[in-house]
Amino acid sequence: MSALKSLSSVLSACLFARSARRWAALAATLGFWIALSSLSAAPLDSAQSSYPSLRRITVKGNPADGFAVVALPPELTSTVPTGSYRLIRSDGREVPYVVTSDAPEAKDRRYSGTLIDTRHEPDQTVWIVDLGSIRRFESLELSIPQHQFRRRVTVEASDEQSGPFRVIARDVGIFDLPWQNAPGGRLHYTTVQLPKSERARFLRFQISTRFRYFRPLSLQGVTALSSSVRPGSQWTLSAPLLPMPTPKHGKDDGNLSLYRLDVPPDLAFLRLQLSARELGFVRTVRLLEADGLSSTHNHAKLKVLAEGTLFRIADGPLQAPTKKPDKGDKSDPIDDEPVTGENLTLSLEDAPGRGMILLEISNGDSPPLSELQLSVSGYGSRLIFPVRPVGSASSVDEESQYTLYYGSETARVRDYDLAKLTGSLSKLSTLLPATLGPRQGNPRFQKPQPLPAVPTTGSPLETTGFRMQRPVLMRDGVELYSLLLSPIDLAFLRSDLGDLRVVDEANQQVPYVLVPNDIETRSELQVLAEPSTATDKISRYRLSLVHNGQSVTVPMEALELTVTSSFYRRSVRIREAKSEVTPHASLLCNGTILRLSEEDAGLHRLPLPGHPVKELILEVDNGDNPPLDIPQVLGVIAVPRVIYKGDAQNSYRLLLGNPSLSSPSYDLVSLSQVLVEYPSKLAQLGDLAANPGYRPPGNYFHEGKMNWVLLGVLLLCVLVLLGLSIRLVRAPHAASDNDAQNAEPPKPPPTQG
Prior knowledge:
Elements: H1 2-41, E1 53-60, E2 67-71, H2 74-77, E3 86-89, E4 98-101, E5 109-121, E6 124-143, E7 149-158, E8 166-178, E9 186-189, E10 191-208, E11 221-226, E12 234-238, E13 241-244, E14 256-261, E15 271-275, E16 281-291, E17 301-313, E18 335-336, E19 341-343, E20 345-347, E21 356-362, E22 373-379, E23 381-386, E24 399-406, H3 422-427, E25 432-433, E26 435-436, E27 440-441, E28 468-473, E29 478-484, H4 487-490, E30 500-504, E31 512-524, E32 526-529, E33 538-547, E34 550-552, E35 554-555, E36 558-562, E37 568-576, E38 587-595, E39 603-607, E40 612-613, E41 615-621, E42 632-647, E43 652-656, H5 672-677, E44 681-682, E45 684-685, E46 689-690, E47 701-702, E48 705-706, H6 708-742
């Protein structure tokens, strides 16, 4: 019995062990797949390991002309060499950029509007205002003489008086209220701040009239304000507030709160933004600069940098008046339409110096503000970069992500060809503002290590099968070099880039790492106007990249048009030109280009699918307007980068175009991530030329031309066969004649007897 029990216990243990092994195997499998999924979910920009810091950039919506802008805070522009940043798209591709420093003008532009129509409807009052011409503006100041009101206003805009009108601000609060802390005892606010810059000539204001006893408001004038600052030139930085004892200036200062701004002493900011927990408040504030401030505040020289009234009005019933009205006061009752409104921004005339910056808040009879926060902003450098469209053309909610890496000690300054458009980009007012996230540490940061083990030569190569070559120019000894191919090179390479080699003077292969589609470049396209009739309202242009007088096929990702005309709004289309391969011209892009001010630059980016094309047709709908003047069209083409270790004392060549060659297999590929991030020297490529040792392959045709030697052999064979055939045809007849002559007469039959 005990033996049976022991046997059963052994079997149970075996079964448990087998079950445990199964669960362990299952757990290991799950762990493997979880690790694999985490690796696949990792961002593709993980190769930027030489940068200790990064900031995420979010672009929301589609830009009008294909470019976005973000302001660079002082910590980037003051400590990082311009051009050493790396901007990486979410798919891992490096994005070119330009950095501009555009000083703002002294004053904003102000445009006065004329009231041309007023209509009093049962539930609203409608005003229509003419600004005289199409203007760009960010805010509207209404001149309303009435008191005692809170109303909602909706603003619409249009280029024509007859419309169509589009809403640019909805249910914005305007009000005039009695308030003890406000200057003069009243808080009068009739400014409409727009969420973004707008362009229009005609404005339509709809003023709510909630009840019939509401008094109609009158409009004396409208002023449209246009900022002199280019989009994206304003940076913002959080400024912690440190409470300080209230200084005495020899007078009763009342209930004051004093804070010191914890900012660098040389930070040149021109605006501050206040934030507090309270839903409704009005405070008079001053921004002071103190020189020689001591703990007793007796030796401080104070300079007023800015002062004003900051407020927030909550959506709710009006607070009770602070004092009872006089018996003889016959003021009108308040037209109380629940609205919200705030003005928590204070502007400085001049940037502060190196003194201590103080914020003084007059609280009146109210307690100090709670959860007070402050941010300062100023004008500095802008980072402008191209973006690809997200979603549909009308999408405004979709986001695309970019990462800005900076702070590398070894990264070299990039020389992007986008710099040739810096002048136009700095004037472009249709740039889409992007959002710069907070500073983060790069979790993959590591200092680059030397690479002595990287080989400089590989196996020998037969170079006679390559059609084209380019000399490689180096001058820094034994170093890690990188090459950027040109768009013309792509026309002679296969789509997989497997027929590209780097060889030395002994035709030994140089192992390399290839980064496909590494960076976008720009090449000027040939622009030929297509014939048109006098009644044709469409201009057509044939676009192509030309090499040695011939159009070449390259993958284009976008077109960038430069238009010198001043005012236009045109619909444009891009089609692939008809050919034997594409007999029906397919539509590649459909959009609108716009320029309504001489202040803007006529630069427009039109996206393309990115597949190889030979010729494109650009169509511009002119309507009843004259054709546009388009002096330049650039084709945007992503080119690969080749990274290798070379010796400048040797001669190197880049070989292109060998369709029968298989793709290379180098051990160097295992160090791809290290080589991509290692600071490499940029080698230069010489002129593209035919390979002098090229021998065409031994087939019947080569580039559409018959091999004449083989053709002669074939013709000779045909002649020989033809002669033999004639001889064979004639030979049977000759044999028959001879046989007839040589034949003996038949013998007579033998006789009997």
